[in-house]
Every structure is written in structure tokens, then in C-alpha cells.
What we know:
Blueprint: E1 13-18, E2 21-24, H1 30-49, E3 54-55, E4 58-59, H2 68-92, H3 95-99, H4 102-119, H5 121-124, H6 148-157, H7 182-196, H8 206-219, H9 221-224, H10 250-259, H11 274-287
Helix pairs in contact: 4-11, 6-11, 7-8, 7-10
Amino acid sequence: MDVERDPVSGRETTGHIWNGIQELDTPVPKGVLIFLIVTHLFAFAWWILMPTWPVGHTYTKGILNTDQRTSVEKHLVEAQAGRAAWMKRIESESLPQIAADPRLMSIVRSTGHRLFGDNCAACHGIDAKGGYGYPDLTDDDWIWGGDLETIAQTMRVGVNVEHPQGRTSQMPSFGRDGILDADQVSLAANYVYSLSHPKFVTPANRASVMSGRDVFAANCAICHGEDARGKREVGAPNLTDARWIYGGELDQIVETVHGGRQGHMPTWDERLSETDIKILALYVHSLSLPGR
């Protein structure tokens, strides 16, 4: 049988023609063949050495008898062994003792950052600066107190939750519940706004602001104090600074006085270990320290 060859290259053709173009019968390059052979040999060797094929409820273990689960378990054991020494110190030492040890605190900050990201950042933000409805944990303004023991206790028992020792704090809805009428709500809000914005008070509205002070004294001072600097024992915030959870603009303050506020923080004593709570308390406390 005569073999047709391409007159230019001299190669045999397949006999296929497309639009006047003949297909050459070009062999597969040797490099490609070698690559395919090597990869198939590698795959075959891998099937023998490593866990590969499912068999009913199990799988082939491979000659090396290794898998990712074994590796992870090994790493976990090694990690636990490495953590044991400093974890024991955190478990046994007091919060002030731990805070006074720079080397131990460097571990606390690293571990605490991870714990905070897993459990607290959803509300307070990964940078712990809070947001609308959630307090900033990086300043020195604390609703319930900012010492180590108080922070740890707040984490344990939560705020406005069903816990026998939980912290309870609620601002009444003065306007919605008819405790104050609309004019009184406005007067009280104007006075509170003036505490952090002194330039708001002018000769034209001074009398109105003073009337608002009277409304505040009769209805708000019992929780926030006569000086409006708050009372940590009842979770009432300081109203004289520029730090606000629900916003410090006049319309936002009116909204707060009218509708009230009730924050919520979960109780962590059943979700986290006591050691984890100590680490988190130390970490959060460190965020508000100068030069952190």
C-alpha cells in the first residue's frame, strides 16, 4: 500500500484533509511520553505508599501507614507540651502577677488575640474598638470597671443575661413609656449634649439647658450621678466625655432618652475555661494601657 507523504516536510499524512489542509501523522514528542510514564509510575508508587483507595467503611492505609490525622494529632501533642509550662503558671498565678511578667504577657497577648478574634471580635471588632451598640475596649472608659478582676468577672457572668451573678443594667425608655413628655425628653437630651459640648450652651438657650439639668437631676442622676460621670456599680456610663456607645449627636441622645437602652454581653463561664477567661481579661486590659 502506497503511503502518501507531504511534499514539503516528507512526513506521512493521515489521509485526513480539512479545507485543503492535510493532517500530518506526527508522532507524540518523546518528552511528553517520558513525562506521562514518570507521572504514572509516581501515581502507582503513591497508591502503594500512602492512604489512597476507599474500601467500604475504611481505606487502604499504604505501606508508610501515615495520614493527615496522624500528623495533626502529633502536632497537637507537641503544641500542648509546649504550652504546658506557661499554661500552668497562668492557671496558678494571680492576674496582677501575670500582668507584671513581661515574658508571660507576650504569650498572653498572642494567645489572647486569637481568643478575642474567635469569641469577642464579632461584636467589639477585631481591633476591639467597638462600634454602634458595642463599647470600645481600647480606651480607659469602662462601664463596669477596668481593673483585671472586674474585667474577668464581667466576662464570666455577662450583662443582662440569665446568670445568677450576671450584671444587670437597663436604661428606661423615658419617652416611649410616658415617664417624660416630648419636651422633657428634649430638655434632658440638650443638657446631656451640653456636658460634652460646652459651646452648645449660648445665652439664647442657657435657660433651656438649665431646665434640662433639672429634668436630669430628677430622673437620671440616680444612675449616672449628679455630676453625670456615671456609676460603675450599676453599669451607668459617664455622660461628660466624648465616648458614646449609641452615638453622641443630639438626635442620637434624644433617641436614647426616648427609647432607652439595654446592652447585652454573653456569659462566658460555661463556654470558656477559667484559664481562657484570665488570658482574655489580661489581653483586653492590656489594650487600654499606654504605649501598648
